[in-house]
TrEMBL record:
Annotated GO biological process: diaminopimelate biosynthetic process; lysine biosynthetic process via diaminopimelate
Family named by the database record: Belongs to the DapB family.
Location in or out of the cell: Cytoplasm
Protein name (database record): 4-hydroxy-tetrahydrodipicolinate reductase
Xref: Pfam families: DapB_C, DapB_N
Gene from which the chain derives: dapB
PROSITE patterns in the record: DAPB (PS01298)
Function according to Swiss-Prot or TrEMBL: Catalyzes the conversion of 4-hydroxy-tetrahydrodipicolinate (HTPA) to tetrahydrodipicolinate.
Domain of life (superkingdom): Bacteria
Gene Ontology CC: cytosol
Length: 275
């Protein structure tokens, strides 16, 4: 590792809450170098990415020039990686462009549809380019999901409650959708109705994801990112809960993903697949 050139990393969404954490983490990783920082926020244009992130100057100005930055990353001797923490509306196009340039995407932005992920998987496969889509980079969430899979063998009733800050654009969270998918893959249906329900207010019972699993989304200032999976059976409730109190919790997963994506030749979805 000591003799290898550092991995050049471009951060898309560099000025955001997650982007700033990623800049700090990459700056502190001896096997990585921050090649570029992109953000569309005009107030951040040309500001030093390190200063914006709060880790001191890194001599990398924030730019809004996405494609030229990808072209630069593509010319590096070592495979470049683009970490994306931007917005659900633009992430699909950004990831497709990165793959087209041969730059490996590590995608934290949530909100991609199943069809978009499938399309990106086919595109990455054709281009023999690694791509990681990780709805949640925290190890605690991976452990919660594994515990939920175990519990789902014994419980037929489950509801997911995800709680986030009120700046979050997509609902339900990518993690909640992924958790429901994982439980649905157990090959059984959940929540058989025991009564004819009538919603007096639309959405009161949440949204129905795969195999009858319900997801409820809470948005409040003061929250960061939290998820409960509640299993119920006659006479008992089994609750699994994960709370994020600092975005630093995602960084070991982000750094691991940057290292792993350079070894991949196709798209992989979920942190549990690369641990
Ligand atoms: N996978 C995970 O573990 C994880 C954890 C936290 C947040 N997220 C997701 O990451 C995303 C970003 O979250 P955040 O809290 O940092 O949001 P944020 O709003 O604080 O930051 C987003 C940043 O991206 C910039 N931006 C938006 N569109 C852009 C574009 N097309 N090109 C370049 N820059 C652009 C914005 O100007 C902003 O600075 C959300 O989708 C969120 O759900 C994922």
């Amino acid at each position: 590792m000591a003799n290898q050139s550092p991995i050049p990393v471009v951060v898309n969404g560099a000025g955001g809450k997650m982007g700033r954490e990623v800049i700090k983490a990459v700056a502190g990783a001896p096997d990585m170098t921050l090649l570029g920082a992109i953000d569309l926020n005009p107030e951040l244009l040309n500001k030093d990415a390190g200063e914006v992130a709060g880790c001191g100057p890194l001599e990398v100005p924030i730019t809004n020039q996405f494609e030229p930055m990808l072209a630069m990353a593509a010319q590096e001797k070592v495979l470049g990686v683009m970490v994306d923490f931007t917005h659900p509306k633009t992430v699909y196009d950004s990831v497709r462009s990165a793959i087209a340039y041969g730059v490996r995407p590590v995608v934290g932005t949530t909100g991609l549809s199943v069809e978009q992920i499938q399309d990106l998987a086919e595109f990455a496969e054709k281009a023999s380019t690694g791509c990681l889509i990780i709805p949640n980079f925290s190890i605690g969430m991976v452990l919660l999901q594994q515990a939920a899979i175990q519990a789902s063998k014994y419980f037929d009733h489950v509801e997911i409650i995800e709680l986030h800050h009120n700046q979050k654009a997509d609902a339900p969270s990518g993690t909640a959708i992924q958790t429901a998918q994982m439980l649905a893959e157990m090959g059984k249906s959940f929540n058989p109705p025991s009564v004819a329900e009538e919603e007096k207010l639309a959405g009161a019972r949440g949204s129905v994801a795969n195999e009858g699993i319900r997801i409820h989304s809470v948005r409040l200032p003061g929250l960061i990112a939290h998820q409960e999976v509640m299993f119920g059976a006659p006479g008992q409730i089994y609750t699994l809960r994960h709370d994020t109190s600092d975005r630093a919790c995602y960084m070991p997963g982000v750094l691991l993903s940057i290292r792993k994506v350079t070894q991949l030749k196709s798209l992989v979805y979920g942190l549990e697949k690369i641990l």
